[in-house]
Specification:
The complex is a heterodimer of chains A (147) and B (153). Chain A is mainly α. Chain A contains eight helices and no strands. In chain A, helix 1 packs across helix 8. Chain B is built from eight helices and no strands. The chains are: A mainly alpha (147), B mainly alpha (153). Chain A: InterPro entries: Globin, Globin-like_sf, Globin/Proto, Hemoglobin_b, Hemoglobin_oxygen_transport.
């Protein structure tokens, strides 16, 4: 069970309050598909993914990114019970979506990089460390029900 | 192709033609602002504490001169590598031997450092850190890591 100190929780929630979930979600998913093109395997029906600009401007990518990041917001409200929060989604990703959990780690790290580019100096090493712990916890929780 | 990519000249790669897209090499070569000197090393030690096990002989407290000096060594090696994209194994041969026979850093740690290098670059140069540049840099760090662990067994 991942335990977050009060400082770690504060580092996460204070930054999250300033994040535009819709924009950041689209950017995170878009960058995942650009930087790690093999992740496009899950999105055959998304239309034009032929270049970085096509991917970043693709409306389905933006919509799905927003959905994913909104769900991430739930994690932040339940940092003491990530496994419980993501139990159903974990089953879904295993049984229906067949997503290798390595992809959760990749997306989590892309999200951290986006936060760094948005927040610059404010994204200190200690703030980053709290977020790394969170994205690792989310990735583990989403993989927990795999069989 | 990798070298052309690095210099922003590849016609098939998205970053060309995007106006002020900065070739990845320039992003790496530009020194960080004096006001925000947080090195990737500090981020790596903070986010991935297991990486500290390779430096029992170092003072790892913030501002450590040893960490700064070592970080510069790593950055200089990356700059050298960036100038030899078409022959990374050749350019990094000595470092590859060193990591295989003396340092023996577990391969997972190259991913941790690469990630923190990307975080540092993104936080210092947000406007230039486009998706295409991000992709090139990730690919570059991955290629360097592969070469440095290539003689492990």
């Amino acid at each position: 069970m991942v335990h977050f100190s009060p400082e770690e929780k504060a580092a996460v929630t204070s930054l999250w309050g300033k994040v535009n979930v819709e924009e950041a979600g689209g950017e995170a998913l878009g960058r995942l598909l650009v930087v790690y093109p093999w992740t496009q395997r899950f999105f055959d029906n998304f239309g034009n993914l032929s270049s970085a600009s096509a991917i970043m401007g693709n409306p389905k990518v933006k919509a799905h990114g927003k959905k994913v990041l909104t769900s991430f917001g739930e994690a932040i409200k339940n940092m003491d019970n990530l496994k419980g929060t993501f139990a159903k989604l974990s089953e879904l990703h295993c049984d229906k979506l067949h997503v290798d959990p390595e992809n959760f780690r990749l997306l989590g790290n892309v999200l951290v990089i986006i936060l760094a580019s948005h927040f610059g100096k404010e994204f200190t090493p200690d703030v980053q460390a709290a977020w790394q712990k969170l994205v690792a916890g989310v990735a583990t929780a989403l993989a927990h029900k795999y069989h | 192709m990798a070298a052309r990519l690095w210099r922003g000249e590849d016609p098939t790669f998205p970053c060309r033609g995007q106006g002020s897209a900065t070739p990845p090499a320039l992003v790496l070569h530009r020194p960080p602002n004096p006001g925000s000197p947080t090195p990737s090393s500090r981020r790596t030690f903070a986010s991935f504490p297991t990486t500290k096990t390779y430096f029992p002989h170092f003072d790892l407290s913030p501002g450590s001169a040893q960490v700064k000096a070592h970080g510069k060594k790593v950055a200089d090696a990356l700059t050298t590598a960036a100038g030899h994209l078409d022959d990374l194994p050749g350019a990094l041969s000595a470092l590859s031997d060193l990591h295989a026979h003396k340092l023996r850093v577990d391969p997972v740690n190259f991913k941790f450092l690469s990630h923190c290098l990307l975080v540092t670059l993104a936080s210092h140069h947000p406007a230039e850190f486009t998706p295409a540049v991000h992709a090139s840099l990730d690919k570059f760090f991955s290629a360097v890591s592969t070469v440095l662990t290539s003689k492990y067994r």
